[in-house]
C-alpha cells in the first residue's frame, strides 16, 4: 500500500512538471518574420504576450515553451510583423466625416466633381448644405478651360446646384470651393478695389471683374464655414466609429490627432470608458481656441500612464497654409505667381506666447509649417523659448510637415532637438507640381530633405495627414524609400539622395513616432516589457522588390495583445 502511494506521488509530480510552463503566455505569435526595431535584437521569429505586454521574444521553439493550456497560439505562417504603426499626424474626426460626406479624393477632373455634386443635390432637400472634401486641381488629369490664379471657377457648380449651398474643402484643408448660393449666404458678392479679395490670413479668389470665383484660401474659408450646420452628437459618434475601423484595417495602433477641441477629447474619453478604442490616442489641443488653451494651462497635461489609451499634452498651432493653394509662407515669391509669398495664418507673436507659456507647464508645442519662412520663424521662436527655460531639456517641440526649408535652417532641427513630423506620401502626391511653385533650386536645396535632417541628428515621425491623403501607411512607406509617385515615376525617384532606407522608414513609423509623443519606453519596438502592439503584413515590406511594396496589405492589427483586425 505504501509502495502504491509513493508511485502515485511520483506520477502526480511527474505530471505537474510536464503539464506546462510555470508562467504561460496569454498568447504567442510564432513562425513569423518579425522586425523588432530593437538594434540589439533586430529580427526574431516569435513573440509571447502576457497581460497585453510583451513577455518574451525569440525563436519559435523558444516561445513555444511558454505555451500553456489556455494560451492562444497564432501562427503567422511566414508573414511579416513589425511594431504597431504609429500615425504621427492626421485628423481623427476628419477621417470619419470624410466617409459621411462627398469624398472627392479620387476625382480626376472638374467635370467629375460637378457630377458628384449633382448626384448629392438630387438626393438632398431644398436648402440642405452639400459638403465634401478631397479635390485638388493640380492632380486633375484635365483642367477646365477657365482658370483664375490656378483655380477653377464655380460656374458649372452653380448650374447643378442653384438652390443648395455647396462647400467643398481642398485636399490640403487650406482652401475651399463654394457655389454662389453659399457665397450669397455669407454676404460675399462682387469685390472691387485696390486689393479686392484679400482678408487677414487668406484670400477670396476673384476674376478680372472682381467677381468671386468660389475659391477661398486659408482663413477666408471661415467666412462660409461658419454657416455650415454643426454636427450632431450622433453623427460625431458615427464618424469616430468609422475612423477607428479605418485605423484598424490599415494597421495603425497609435494615432496623433493634429488639433482638436474639448468635444473630440470628451468623445474619445467616452469611447475609452466604453472599451471601444482600438488605437491609442495622442490628441493635440487646437490652437484655434485660445480659451481652450487657457483652461488646459490651469489643469496641466493629461498623461495616461495607466493604460496609455488617451493622452493630451500637446498644442497644435496652424502657422501657414499649404503649397497647393499657394498658401505656404515663403521667404521669396512663388515661382508661378510673382509678387505672392503665401500667408502667415497665425501671428508669430502667438507662437512666442504659447511656446513660452506651454514649456514650463509640461506641454509640447506642435506647429504647422510648410513654407521656408514659416519654418524659420517658428524655429526662431522655439529657440527663444528654450533659452528662457534652459533647465527644461526634454521638450520635444515639433514642426508639423516641415516640407520646405531654407538650407540654413535644416541643421537647427538637430541642434534644437525639434522633431520633424513629416508625411512622406506628400512627396509622391505633391512633388510633380511643387517644382512649379518653388522652382528647381529651392526644391533641391530644401524640399522633403529627409537625409539632410537625419544627418543633423533630427528625428522624423511619419504619417499621412489623413484625410488629406488616405491613412494607409503602405503608400507613405513606399514614398519614403523610393521618392516616386504612386505610378512609379520617375526612375530613381525625385532627388533620390534623400530617400530613407527601409530601416529608417520603419523606425519613422514606429519608434520615432513613439518618441514624438514621449512613449518610446512603452511602445514603438518589439522588446520585453513593452506594449504588445503589432502590425502584420502579408508580405515582407523590408525585402520585397521596390515595385511590389504597394501591393502589400495589412493581414492583422494587434493592440495591447488583442487582435483588433484580421483579414
TrEMBL record:
Keywords: Hydrolase, Signal. GO terms for molecular function: hydrolase activity, acting on carbon-nitrogen (but not peptide) bonds. Residues 1-19 form the signal peptide. The keyword Disulfide bond does not apply. Residues 72-565 form the Amidohydrolase domain. The keyword Chaperone does not apply. This is Amidohydrolase.
Amino acid at each position: 500500500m505504501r509502495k502504491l502511494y509513493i508511485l502515485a506521488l511520483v506520477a502526480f509530480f511527474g505530471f505537474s512538471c510536464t503539464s506546462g510552463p510555470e508562467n504561460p503566455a496569454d498568447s504567442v505569435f510564432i513562425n513569423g518574420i518579425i522586425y523588432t526595431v530593437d538594434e540589439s535584437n533586430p529580427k526574431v521569429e516569435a513573440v509571447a504576450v502576457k497581460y497585453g505586454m510583451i513577455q518574451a521574444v525569440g525563436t519559435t521553439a523558444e516561445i513555444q515553451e511558454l505555451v500553456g493550456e489556455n494560451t492562444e497560439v497564432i501562427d503567422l505562417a511566414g508573414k511579416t510583423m513589425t511594431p504597431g504603426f504609429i500615425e504621427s499626424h492626421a485628423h481623427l474626426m476628419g477621417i470619419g466625416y470624410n466617409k459621411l460626406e462627398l469624398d472627392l479624393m479620387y476625382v480626376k477632373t472638374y467635370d467629375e466633381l460637378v457630377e458628384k455634386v449633382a448626384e448629392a443635390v438630387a438626393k438632398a432637400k431644398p436648402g440642405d448644405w452639400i459638403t465634401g472634401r478631397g479635390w485638388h486641381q493640380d492632380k486633375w488629369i484635365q483642367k477646365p478651360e477657365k482658370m483664375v490664379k490656378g483655380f477653377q471657377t464655380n460656374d458649372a457648380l452653380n448650374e447643378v446646384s442653384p438652390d443648395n449651398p455647396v462647400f467643398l474643402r481642398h485636399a490640403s484643408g487650406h482652401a475651399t470651393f463654394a457655389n454662389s448660393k453659399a457665397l450669397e449666404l455669407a454676404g460675399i458678392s462682387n469685390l472691387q478695389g485696390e486689393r479686392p479679395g484679400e482678408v487677414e490670413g487668406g484670400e477670396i479668389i476673384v476674376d478680372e471683374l472682381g467677381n468671386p470665383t468660389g475659391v477661398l484660401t486659408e482663413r477666408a474659408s471661415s467666412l462660409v464655414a461658419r454657416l455650415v450646420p454643426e454636427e450632431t452628437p450622433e453623427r460625431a459618434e458615427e464618424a469616430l466609429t468609422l475612423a477607428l475601423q479605418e485605423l484598424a484595417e490599415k494597421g495603425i495602433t497609435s494615432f496623433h490627432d493634429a488639433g482638436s477641441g474639448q468635444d473630440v477629447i470628451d468623445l474619445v474619453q467616452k469611447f475609452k470608458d466604453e472599451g471601444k478604442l482600438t488605437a491609442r490616442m495622442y490628441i493635440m489641443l487646437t490652437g484655434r481656441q485660445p480659451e481652450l488653451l487657457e483652461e488646459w494651462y490651469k489643469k496641466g497635461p493629461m498623461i495616461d500612464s495607466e493604460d496609455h489609451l488617451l493622452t493630451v499634452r500637446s498644442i497644435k498651432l496652424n502657422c501657414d497654409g499649404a503649397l497647393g493653394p499657394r498658401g505656404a509662407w515663403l521667404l521669396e515669391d512663388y515661382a508661378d505667381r510673382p509678387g505672392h509669398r503665401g500667408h502667415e495664418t497665425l501671428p508669430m507673436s502667438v507662437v512666442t506666447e504659447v511656446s513660452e507659456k506651454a514649456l514650463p507647464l509640461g506641454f509640447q508645442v506642435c506647429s504647422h509649417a510648410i513654407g521656408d519662412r514659416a519654418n524659420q520663424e517658428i524655429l526662431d521662436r522655439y529657440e527663444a523659448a528654450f533659452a528662457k527655460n534652459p533647465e527644461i531639456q526634454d521638450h520635444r517641440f515639433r514642426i508639423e510637415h516641415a516640407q520646405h526649408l531654407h538650407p540654413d535652417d535644416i541643421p537647427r532641427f538637430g541642434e534644437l532637438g525639434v522633431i520633424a513630423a513629416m508625411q512622406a506620401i506628400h512627396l509622391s502626391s505633391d512633388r510633380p507640381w511643387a517644382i512649379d511653385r518653388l522652382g528647381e533650386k529651392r526644391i533641391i536645396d530644401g524640399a522633403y530633405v529627409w537625409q539632410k535632417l537625419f544627418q543633423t541628428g533630427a528625428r522624423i515621425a511619419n504619417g499621412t495627414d489623413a484625410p488629406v491623403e488616405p491613412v494607409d501607411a503602405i503608400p507613405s512607406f513606399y514614398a519614403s524609400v523610393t521618392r516616386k509617385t504612386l505610378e512609379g515615376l520617375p526612375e530613381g525617384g525625385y532627388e533620390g539622395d534623400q530617400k530613407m532606407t527601409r530601416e529608417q522608414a520603419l523606425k519613422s513609423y514606429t519608434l520615432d513616432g513613439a518618441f514624438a509623443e514621449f512613449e518610446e519606453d512603452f511602445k514603438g519596438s518589439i522588446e520585453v516589457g513593452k506594449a504588445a502592439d503589432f502590425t502584420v503584413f502579408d508580405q515582407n515590406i523590408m525585402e520585397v522588390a521596390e515595385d511590389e511594396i504597394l501591393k502589400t496589405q495589412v493581414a492583422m492589427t494587434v493592440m495591447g495583445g488583442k487582435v483588433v483586425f484580421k483579414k
